[in-house]
Design brief:
Blueprint lengths: L6 H16 L6 H13 L3 E4 L6 H12 L3 E5 L6 H5 E8 L2 E8 L6 E5 L6 H13 L1 E4 L2 E4 L5 E6 L12 H4 L4 E4 L5 H12 L12 H13 L4 H12 L10 H6 E3 L3 H17 L7 H12 L4 E2 L1 H5 L4 H11 L3
Parallel strand pairs: 1-8, 1-9, 2-5, 5-8
Antiparallel strand pairs: 3-4, 6-7, 10-11
Helix pairs in contact: 1-2, 2-11, 9-11, 11-12, 12-14
Length: 325
């Protein structure tokens, strides 16, 4: 692959990744696409869905398709920060005793944080620096993580006993929050065929870490027109109930709106979607395709919204419907 990717090369590699993942994962096209958009934007993903929908399998399969160093951490209430960051151990070196750092499972390219809301806030916070800064600090020493570095976390929305819900500040660090839904009858039948037969399929290597970094560089270079950027800015500000352009649903049910990180996610995500479509400029349709994944975890509903069963997706849908281009 050349040093500078073309749009055609980007599209070819991205399609190859999706094709390899599709050999293992049945359906869930939007889920796979949104996870890939986040990875190519340099962001982290939170996957939410009931048990058994293949969230962990999807992330494992992506690890195979991307030919990256993969690591899995099962989050539990007794997991300590040192268990994921690493720790200093005492070793004998030529008759002298000295401390040596032993890296934890975060020292990988693709980290699966399984059931992240089962860990204590202390351990969740330890993950936060790695996600935000691309580094970890142990015993006052900072260690850089290898690029590319992505955290793909899962959580179960129905089994809340013994869990520690992620605070808003940490949720905001996730580029996308992707909901994994139940398959339809045809997809369910295909899942049963693939998982109960004698042949077990696996994904082949479709891209390397160097490819991902080149693709990310191309994403950053994609232009976005000033009126499209202005639309994103208006959209973000209109999620705040005290904004004059806020929709009726926002004014009635939203406690606090989206941060500037939501706008950054929309811009970068729209650029990736444009490249997926073979275009070298981000358009309104690209924003609409990713708006829910980029904003749903950044909107805070008030008591009335929670009590009346209003979802953040409903608020976002109304906002985009009413916001003029």
């Amino acid at each position: 692959m050349t040093e500078t990717l073309s749009v055609e090369q980007f599209h070819e590699v991205a399609s190859r990744i999706e094709s390899e993942v599709g050999k293992v994962i049945v359906g869930q096209f939007d889920v796979v696409r949104h996870v890939l958009v986040s990875i190519l934007s340099g962001g982290h993903v939170l996957l939410e869905g009931v048990p058994g929908l293949g969230k962990t399998m999807l992330i494992r399969t992506l690890g195979e398709a991307l030919d990256l160093k993969f690591s899995r951490v099962q989050f539990t209430p007794d997991l300590m920060p040192a268990d994921i960051l690493g720790t200093e151990i005492l070793v004998d070196q030529d008759g002298r005793r000295e401390f040596r750092f032993r890296p934890g499972p975060l020292f990988a390219n693709l980290v699966l944080a399984d059931e992240i809301n089962r860990a204590t806030p202390k351990t969740q916070s330890a993950l936060l620096e790695a996600m935000q800064e691309g580094s970890v600090t142990v015993a006052q020493q900072t260690y850089r993580l290898d690029e590319p570095f992505f955290v793909l976390a899962t959580q179960n929305p129905i089994e809340m006993e013994g869990t520690y819900p992620l605070p808003e500040a940490q949720l905001d660090r996730f580029f996308f929050k992707v909901n994994v839904n139940m398959p339809d009858v045809k997809e369910m039948s295909e899942i049963l065929d693939r998982t109960t037969g004698k042949d077990v399929t696996s994904a082949g290597h479709a891209a390397s870490g160097a490819d991902i970094l080149q693709m990310r560089a191309l994403v950053r270079a994609v232009p976005i027109a000033s009126h499209v950027k202005e639309y994103i800015a208006r959209l973000i500000l209109a999620t705040h109930p005290d904004d004059p352009k806020a929709s009726p649903l926002v004014k009635k049910y939203v406690r606090y709106g989206v941060s500037p990180r939501g706008g950054q996610a929309l811009v970068l995500g729209a650029k990736v979607m444009a490249l997926f479509s073979g275009r070298y400029n981000a358009a309104f349709e690209d924003i609409h395709a990713i708006a829910s994944a980029a904003l749903r975890h950044r909107l805070l509903l008030n008591f009335d919204g929670l009590a009346e069963g209003i979802s953040t997706d409903m608020v976002i849908a109304e906002l985009m419907k009413e916001m003029p281009h």
